[in-house]
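Please review the protein record below. Let me know how this chain folds according to its tokens.
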Amino acid sequence: MVTGIVIPADESQPIFQREFKRLSEYQEVVGGYIEAVDLGPLGASFFAHDESKLIGSPINRRATLAWWLACPYMRHRDTIGGDVVLVGLPDSEGDTKSVPDELIALLFTTKAYKAEYQTADSNDTFNGNSMIYEDYWEAVQAALVKFDRWEAVIRARVVPA
């Protein structure tokens, strides 16, 4: 069984954990055939509907922001539509793994967040400021705004405060 996190496109709906046994269960959540969207630095992937744009699914802002944060080269180039499932990266045999425990903790038990930035002149360290956010998605959006406005930033992340 694989533990995933469902992220509904409708932001009035909370994210939630769910156990998955079969491909059909992922397809049920996303509403059709799935495609994997890699979130490499997070050690995770999204399963999303492979034709979400063609069928007019609403943009999943939360999933899109998380994707842009993990994969800066996709910022403002593409979006993720519809409900998605966050899972771990596949193992060496291609089998889906559960979402990493640290992501579960970050999304469900962390009470305060901060954004940190890595700049071109300090590729080994992340630095932040005193801004604290109570909502993970608000912190992700703030990190991306800074990323867009400060050319020296090469990576950003959201961590517990």
Remarks:
- The helical segments are 23-30, 61-70, 101-108, 136-149.
